[in-house]
Amino acid sequence: MDEQTYTVITFAPVQGFIEKSRKLRDLYGSSYLLSLLSWVICQAARKQGCSVVSPASINVVQGMPNQIIIKGELSEDGVGEIKSTFYLAWRIITNTCREWVEENLKEWEYTWKRNWDLWGNYAWEFFSARGKPGDSITDVRELINQAKNSRDWTGINWQGESSTLSGADAIAYPRLGASGDPRKYNYQQEQTDITNFYQQLSLKLGEVLIQENSQSSADNLEVELEAEKEDFSQLSEEEKEKKKQEFIQKYGSSFINVREQLSIPELIKRLITHRIILAQFKHNFLQNREKLGEFPVNFNRIASELSPKTFKDLNRHKDEAEEKKYWTGWFQGDGDGAGKYFKSLSKEEEEQETQKFSEEMRSWGNELTKNYRKYLDNKGRMIYAGGDDFLGVLYYTEEQIQPTECLELLSNFKSGIWHGEKQKKITASVGFVWAGSQVPQRDILQHCHQAEQSAKKKGRDRIAFRVLFNSGNYLEWVCPWWVLDMQDLGKVSHDFPHIKVPTEPKKQEVLNLIESYQDRNYGKNWTHFYQDVALLESRHAFDGERTIVDKKPVNNSQIDIALRLIEIYFGKEWYDIIANSKNWFNRYNEKEIQIFTGILGDPNFFDSNSDNNLTDNHQVKQAFNDWVINLAKVGFRLTEDKK
Predict the structure, then answer these.
(1) pLDDT tens digit sequence for 495-528
(2) Closest Cα to residue 201, out of 104, 307, 309?
(3) Based on the number of CB atoms within 10 Å of its own CB, is 190 exposed (0-12), middle (13-18) or buried (19 or more)?
(4) Distance CA 525, CA 519 (A)
(5) Strand runs (DSSP E) across 72-123, as ranges?
(6) Residue 79, CA distances (Å) to 44, 71, 196, 485 in order
(7) DSSP assignment of 33-68, as one string?
(8) In terms of Cα–Cα distance, which of 493, 497, 469 is closest to 480?
(9) Which residue from 49, 124, 303, 516 has the least number of CB within 10 angstroms?
(10) Is there a contact between 618 and 479 (Cβ–Cβ < 8 Å)?
């Protein structure tokens, strides 16, 4: 039997312009762009006579990972052909966006083409690794990781001011790249030109949507006014024109706010989500059908999902000062330890299990995106769910969602949404942000990413709750899923019998940690716990005595007070679980797969020699106290009644 040969291809954006997305439209646009480019690579590999092991189900474009595993003989020239196809697709995207702007805003003199061409040629790093016959997929994955260590990218120089989003690249406007005497540079004139350009571009994006597929712009306007319970026939011509301009402005600002100044890649991520520009891109793509293949049938979903009509309820930059703004809940997550799972497979089962895993995760993401109302109990929407990456928001359009509703939904996320009816082969880490009504969307998304990373760093298989205030300050508490998810706790208790599932004595009802809370009057008022912790903190009661460790003065914290607070407010059963140091740290099997998720996470975080007894480690005791303190602060915010 001939031994199989595998090739792994991946790509990454130069300077991380995808990851620096700061708005939902950016994230949608970048998610679809990544998926499209992955799809192009898969199609090109098949044209070379190879099969694609991962991603599975490549007919579903959204959520495709940017690492492609290819099975079959693929020469160096074949890889080069795939790379050429990849860059062709990207250049069609950039050229489509640039040409649409130039054709629709003809009053400007454009000197920016060279800069667009540079982004068309140097926006991505492209990596490939070809294994020898007999090499496993894991072996080739190791080769691609080595290849990625040798970065191969070209920076793009520019003159002028940087974009208002990332601050990393030049502002895209018609005079970008114009040559001239630097001594005659007029900063104020340039800022005026940039502002005028983005105002005109925003209005044009709204105008063409209003005019699309209608005999006149008034036809679409009539439908819009009916939706807002206004009688179109009763308006004067002057009022109709005024309403038309209002809708044009509203639609345009859903793509580009007139106050924004974007770089070329940031602008691309916005424009490609516009239905008219997407249609033009499809036309240009199909003109290169011989090399690129057919256009992915479900790629058009991006325009309908991001229609201003359906996406306006998430606009956090409302212009009407009197319009009420609400706190909202945002969650972002990612699967844990997929690499370790693949390494644990034998060579014989690796290909089949890799393909099965990819198909399972992509089916899950597709199902969650399509039926998010069911999974989120009509409390919000999924922004995207591609493979094991996902982002969602919890809110009501016309009233304040309560933090307790978000807490209840996320408490059962692992068993109810992540695993569902069929348990996944890996766990998930999630960051949840309860965001103030005045916090900009780009700040929320950044905090979502940071909260998710916090859950990862604290030991994976857990959720990080972050309360983000309008001032930009935040509180955070991180816990394993089994502290909140009672189905998960039941499984943990079965595998580790020393953990007893807590129940409410009178009702014999299983209660998670938050539900078990009782104040000193046997009520649910978290103020008691919160105030006790605040008072003890102010008196440095958790600090302990100063001592010397490794020639450095540290606080030798004691945990007796923290444990006593747990017993008082959460009962004896939860006290027994939390006080047991066996439950503090992660445990791993011989293949380094995590089999138990501890409250404080990975023991190596505190001591590289995890065989040591860590219960007396001053860092461990400080971390335990912090865990209880943050439980009081975050729990108080997530159980209060929001008006």
Answers:
(1) 998 888 887 666 667 899 999 999 989 999 999 9
(2) 104
(3) middle
(4) 6
(5) none
(6) 9, 13, 45, 46
(7) HHHHHHHHHHHHHHHTT-EEEESS-TT--TT--SEE
(8) 493
(9) 49
(10) no
| 55 and 387 Cβ atoms separated by less than 8 Å | yes
- The one-character DSSP state at 406 is H
Contact predicate 70/45, CB 8 Å:
yes
Place of tokens 């697709």: 89
Neighbours of 576 (CB within 10 A): 16
Describe the chain by its helix, strand, coil percentages, rounded to 5: 50, 15, 35
Beta-sheet pairing, 552-556 with 545-549:
antiparallel
Q: Where are the domains of the chain?
A: 6-314, 328-638
How many whole angstroms separate alpha carbon 286 and alpha carbon 293?
Answer: 8
Closest CA to 302 of 79, 28, 53, 7: 28
Chain-centre distance of CA 586, in angstroms?
25
pLDDT for residue 121 is more than 90: yes
Q: What type of residue is 39?
A: W
Asked if the model's pLDDT at residue 213 lies above 90, the reply is: no
Per DSSP, 601 falls in state B
At 260 the three-state DSSP class reads: coil
Is the CB of residue 203 less than 8 Å from the CB of residue 249? yes
Rounded CA separation 426/204 (Å): 46
72 in Cβ contact with 396 (< 8 Å): no
The span from the CA of 278 to the CA of 366, in Å, is 21
Are the CB atoms for 266 and 17 separated by under 8 Å?
Answer: yes
Contacts of 164 (CB under 8 A, 6+ apart): 171, 259, 260, 261, 262
What is the Cα–Cα distance from 258 to 244, expressed in whole angstroms?
18
Give the length of the chain: 643
CB atoms within 10 A of CB 357: 22
Read off the amino acid at residue 531.
Answer: Q
Rg from Cα positions in the chain: 27
Give the domain 328-638 fold: Alpha-Beta Plaits (3.30.70)
523: left (phi over 0), alpha (psi -120 to 50) or beta: beta
- The DSSP symbol for 415 reads I
Is 407 in contact with 638 (CB distance < 8 Å)? yes
Per-residue model confidence (pLDDT) at position 388 = 84
What average pLDDT does the segment 453-466 reach?
98
Cis amide linkage into residue 296, ω under 30° from 0? no
Say which DSSP state 585 is in: B
Q: Please determine, for residue 293, whether its predicted confidence score (pLDDT) is greater than 90.
A: no
Tokens of 522: 């046997």
User: Which residues make Cβ contacts (< 8 Å) with residue 568, sequence separation at least 6?
Assistant: 520
pLDDT tens per residue, range 372-396: 999 999 999 888 777 788 999 999 9
* pLDDT score, position 218: 42
Separate counts of helices (H) and strands (E) for the chain: 21, 16
DSSP characters over 194-235: HHHHHHHHHHHHHHHHHHTTSSSHHHHHHHHHHHTT--GGGS
Tell me the two tokens of residue 42: 């898969």
Contacts of 447 (CB under 8 A, 6+ apart): 431, 433, 435, 466, 468, 474
pLDDT score recorded for residue 318: 47
DSSP tag of 541: T
